[in-house]
Amino acid sequence: MKTQRIVSKNATWQKFEVLKSNRNKRYRYRQFFVEGVRNLNEAIHNGWTIDSFIFSFEFHLSDWARNLLETVPTQVNYALSGSLMSQLSSKTDASELCALIRMRDDQWTAANKQSDHEGLLAVLFDRPSNKGNLGTMIRSCDALGVDRLLLTGHGVDRYDPEVVAASMGSLFRLPIIYLADNGSLQSWIDEHRQMYPSLQIVGTTAHQEQPINQVDLTDPTLLIIGNEADGMSRWLREQCTTLATIPMNPSGAATSLNVSCAATVLLYEVWRQRSSKHG
Fold it and tell me: Sheet harboring 31-35: ordered strands across?
């Protein structure tokens, strides 16, 4: 495997930094920066293309890291000085192994349609504005049986290193589709209504609507999670067949939950109902 040694902040090292910080450059290169054992293991396990590994020729490498360097095919690997590796890593103790991973086209999810089942569960997160919230949302969707996550409008980039880190590997397991505008989303809805005639669209709101535990969530469902600050847009609200809310303690000071916390509660209710139905 070809390995390039880097001992100064040359153009290649600067590219690593750009991939971490610049969304537009990530999409131009079609690559994103990843570190962390769980993330790298999940990326490899789920068949993502590793373009390059990055490590330090001055750091001791574990058996795990050496095994990946020896067995995972890449275009070129990069061996950095210890100082450069420490500056590149976002961790207090520098990661022993990072990677540049190839982005997947959203259309790859089309090949997975046969894996959809009668109880389709999709989540739409509208214009996510917080990196931690998006990463946590991805993790909760993966943990609670969501088939695919839809992202709409101008929001946080799913390939941002902070999002990837917060997802704890789930980014590489969960099909995620970006829909830039309402027309694209309408096409997705129309297509899936043909596939699932009983598809319901459940909008979530902090206002007093039908309690989520009183909504039948065992049918094919698209669950809509609104933007953190603005909630659901008017257009999204009009697409909903049901509006639901999480019952809150009436004597508590909190009147709403963080969006990713709320999504986890909502998805657990879907999981609970479906688990009870199927025994």
Answer: 3-6, 77-80, 50-56, 98-102, 31-35
Helices then strands, counting H and E runs in the chain, come out as 10, 12
pLDDT in tens, 18-39: 999 999 999 999 999 999 999 9
* DSSP conformational letter for 125: E
Question: Count of alpha carbons within 13 Å of 271, Cβ hemisphere only?
Answer: 14
- Confirm whether pTM is higher than 0.85: yes
Burial zone of 193 (CB within 10 Å; 0-12 exposed, 13-18 middle, 19+ buried): middle
Structure tokens, 255: 């009147």
Q: What are phi and psi of 137, to 5 degrees?
A: -60, -45
Nearest CA to 140 out of 270, 254, 41, 276 is that of: 270
The structure tokens listed for 94 are: 């520098």
